[in-house]
Amino acid sequence: MTLGCEWCGRDRGFRPHVSSNLPAIADSSERDTERVVHTTSKPPALDGFTASAYRRDRLAFALRAAQECGDVWRMRRNVYVALTAEPCLAVLRRTNQEYGTPPGTFPPTRRPDGSVPGEQEFTHGHAARMRGLRPRAVAARLGLIAPGITEFAAGLPPGQDIDILPRAHRMLFRIGGRYLFEEDADSLLAAGGGLPAAREAITRGLPWPRWMPTPARRALTGHRTRFSHQLQQVIDRRRAENRLGEDVLGQMLKPSSQYGLLPDTAIHDSLTGLIIAGSEVPTRAVGWLMLALARHPDLAERIATEAAALPDDPHHPVNGRFLAELPFTEAFVREVLRLHPPNWLQARIARRRTELAGYPIAPGTMVLVCSYTVHLDPREHENPDTFSPDRWLDYGQASAESRVFLPFGTGPRACEGAALAMAELTLLAAETARRWHLYEPEGLMPSHGIDTDGGLTPTGLRLRVTPRTR
Ligand code: HEM
After folding, report:
1. Matching PANTHER family, A to Z (predicted)?
2. pLDDT tens digits for 297-348?
3. Test site for ligand 1: of 93, 122, 171, 281, most ligand atoms within 8 A of the Cβ
């Protein structure tokens, strides 16, 4: 019996410090495919749930809850988890007025009068960022990210144990910066280089009250100020030269016909968030992607064949047509994200009284949307535990788009970088598989642990490559 998915099965075992010991639960084929009807006003809780047991194996609890609780699990008195497609979509599609997001690591910069930006500025900022991040903009500007991806793939050292995640993070930080700031990337990334580690230190630290100026918070503020200072110099120079640029920063500097100019404070806040978002979560995805290439050599071979049709010259201009030549590779990436959604829980807080799957929800209730269990629900995908990229090709485009696929969320707070991330991961899979066979080093089985705190991450992932000869 496979548990969770074929990669997370206990038969492979995991290093002890990580989420691993999935309790015996039914295979998806044995799961009850009828929706559970509840008669109480509260969603069911799970026997044996304690905070420490949950911390030890969050995925196992989620899978057990999906089997025993139906649509919604009452994890704590005021924390509910939406486990199936219907309630997950219902929550994600609601507006900010109905479900807000918990405060993030970067509180918005206060305006000179001490106020914080309101809903209109959020909408304006979103529209301004999306001018540079929507699929058409990404397709037109693939040439900015392709060389960094090729360089990464070509530079993997053969025959050595490669610690994948730190390398991937450096590459994504660089190419993300290039996509956001083009020729100003070097100076801005140098100024913001400490931001990812400073943010990581806060998310991993003790949950001190938000007002407490801990050393980690002071360090983050320092990095934020350094980055903002450099960013303002770039903004002032671009305005003085009347050359705003076509990159994401340039798009944000252009006035919108509806809202006018976006305040500089909003540009600073947005771009600080984007340089983190552009590297932190995608790094986890790259980990799962490289592991999938190693664990499915037959499918990696198909990617290599598809990629071989592409120009070999690293300086060849790359555009959206390039990606259109890689349908199987893209399906492979989708399948990796289906089984390992790096953001497997998305948090919302109910702002007003509402209901979810028939249960009343009081204001202030936290609702966690669990894409992990939705993606493993046999009502959404046949044989959901099986790694099968072909399912996405078999669905056909229209049906594939209507499938519940939530690695990037959906609705008003859906990932703004989804098109960029898909392009990066597809190019990376193609450029890696065309050059290398990947495998897990012998004696290091398994080659990784799993961390589920905050995101779904393959920790300490080590892989080896040998050249693919044709
Ligand atoms: C595989 C890579 C990525 C994954 C799996 C991912 C996943 C997600 C998810 C699930 C959310 C929604 C969270 C929610 O509903 O609360 C999100 C939000 C966001 N993502 Fe991504 N993301 C990825 C890459 C990127 C990239 C490359 C960028 C930008 C360069 C980006 C920028 C953002 C932003 C700005 C938001 C916030 C949207 C908002 O709150 O309105 N992401 N991401």
Report:
1. CYTOCHROME P450, CYTOCHROME P450 12A4, MITOCHONDRIAL-RELATED
2. 999 999 999 998 887 776 777 777 788 899 999 999 999 999 999 999 999 9
3. 281
The pocket around ligand 1, CB under 6 angstroms, is made up of: 101, 126, 176, 273-274, 277-278, 281-282, 285, 342-343, 346, 407-409, 413-417, 420-421
Q: Residue 432: which of 388, 397, 465, 463 has the closest Cα?
A: 465
Distance CA 319, CA 326 (A): 12
Nearest atom in ligand 1 to the alpha carbon of residue 122 is 41
CA of 212 to the centre of ligand 1 (A): 27
Domains and CATH numbers, the chain: 28-105+118-467 (1.10.630.10)
pLDDT digits (tens, 9 = 90+) for 236-262: 999 999 999 999 999 999 999 999 999
What residue's CA is closest to ligand 1, atom 19? Answer: 415
Closest among 256, 263, 245, 250 to 127, alpha carbons compared:
256
The CA-atom distances, in angstroms, between 33 and each of 66, 338, 377 are 11, 19, 9
pLDDT of res. 130: 96
Asked if the model's pLDDT at residue 225 lies above 50, the reply is: yes
Of ligand 1's atoms, which has the minimum distance to the CA of residue 275? 30
pTM: 0.91
Asked whether residue 276 carries a pLDDT value surpassing 50, the answer given is yes
The amino acid sitting at 46 is L
CB-based contact 281:342 (threshold 8 Å): yes
Residue nearest to atom 27 of ligand 1 (CA): 278
